[in-house]
Amino acid sequence: MGLENPLFESLPDILTVKLDAVINWARKSSIWPATFGLACCAIEMMNSVSARNDLSRFGAETFRASPRQADVMIVSGRVSRKMAPVLRRIYDQMPEPKWVISMGACATSGGVFDNYAIVQGVDKVVPVDIYIPGCPPRPEMLVHAIMMLQDKIMKESVKERADTFEEESRRSIVPGTLPVTEGTKLEEQAEHASTRPYTVPSKHEKRRTS
Amino acid sequence: MSNTNDLQEFVEKLKAHNADWVSEVVDALGEITIIVPAESVVDICAFLKAEHGFDMLADLCGCDRGPEEDPRFEVNYHLFSTTHYKRLRLKVLLTEDNPNVKTVTGLWKTANWHERETYDLLGIIFDEHPDLRRILLPSDFDGHALRKDYPLRGYEPYSLT
Fold first, then answer.
1. Which of B76, B65, B96 is nearest to B33 (CA)?
2. Would you call the peptide bond into A137 cis, given omega within 30 degrees of 0 as the criterion?
3. Mean pLDDT taken over chain A
4. From B138, which residue of chain A is nearest by alpha-carbon distance?
5. Closest residue to B139, CB basis, from A120, A182, A195
């Protein structure tokens, strides 16, 4: 005598719903974050999956070590200029649909690190869905951000993301273009190509910034 | 104040070997700093390593005294001996127009990365260095970040602010 019996008695065998509603409901119920801790905010991020805060209540407790299995990237901490291309590459490796949470003051705006070494806001590198203030934010705030992201996912349409995957994969940076060595051919090409070398413009981003 | 008589011995030995090698001696806080001419720093290090047991380069670092100073840059060599446990500091002064000094990687392998760091952050050129490129900052970085006249937020458009 569970929930099923009264449910099946009162409802017909077949229901008609919007496809978006079903798919978004499935997506929002299991958002897997990528394991990506950058600084002290990562400690709070780890705390949010602990027994006290228990992020698994919202289906987001499974931190994946591979970006290929992750849905949301929580940028937890300051992004140094050297980390920016790495962060962008991890974002590019994540399959669609994907979201980004900018956690804390440093990831959002550079925070107290207003200098040459720190990227002044991770939204210069990847498109951000949710910004969390705080230095560092409490785990509750991250849980709240996940819930806000779930609300946002419910408002999305599957059609909007349908065209982005193929287009993005065609235009994304090929492996081996990180500027870690000097004077390589790829790097020279990248210098001429764009003034924002770490950012791949895509339909996906244009849609979100508009 | 601790006694530096034992360290003064090495100064005397350096002077006895070649009087030009010692420009100035600073005796402070129980430490001896010998200011040496830039062109002979490799010979001095080789002499101290071979004859007086300074077999370890504990640290090599640069310093910018500010754009108004002349000479503007200094390079410090912190020597240590694993046999008699004494420490000695050599200091080379370099001008802004000619921030070149010969590398000591031939004597101590560890100098390789130390010199790369000094080049990266201060722009001091170590002549005959086997692999003088940036080590901490991104390879496309503009300028040298620890120079006193480097703007805190970096140069445009690199700063992305």
1. B76
2. no
3. 78
4. A82
5. A182
Read off the pLDDT of each residue in A52-69 and give the average, rounded to a whole number.
89
Q: Choose among A24, A207, A134, A83: nearest CA to A73.
A: A83
- pLDDT single digits (tens) B12-48: 888 888 878 888 888 888 888 999 998 888 999 999 8
Judge: B133–A182 Cβ closer than 8 Å, yes or no.
yes
**DSSP 8-state symbol, A39:** S
Q: In this complex, do B153 and A180 lie within 8 Å of one another by their Cβ atoms? A: no
Rounded mean pLDDT, B50-55: 88
Contact between A131 and A108 (Cβ < 8 Å):
yes
* Residues belonging to chain B with any Cβ–Cβ distance to chain A shorter than 8 Å: 133-134, 137-141, 145, 150-154, 157-161
Q: How far is CA A141 from CA A73, A101, A133, A146, B107, in A?
A: 16, 12, 8, 9, 55
Angle, CA A51 vertex, CA A46 and CA A54 arms, to 5°: 70
Q: Are β-strands B73-80 and B56-64 bridged in parallel, bridged antiparallel, or unpaired?
A: antiparallel
How far is the CA of A31 from the CAs of A50, A153, B38, B74, in angstroms? Answer: 17, 10, 61, 54
Mutate to test the interface with A, among B141, B144, B158, B160 (most CBs of A within 10 A): B160
Which residues of chain B neighbour A116 with C-beta distances below 8 Å? 145, 150-154, 158-159
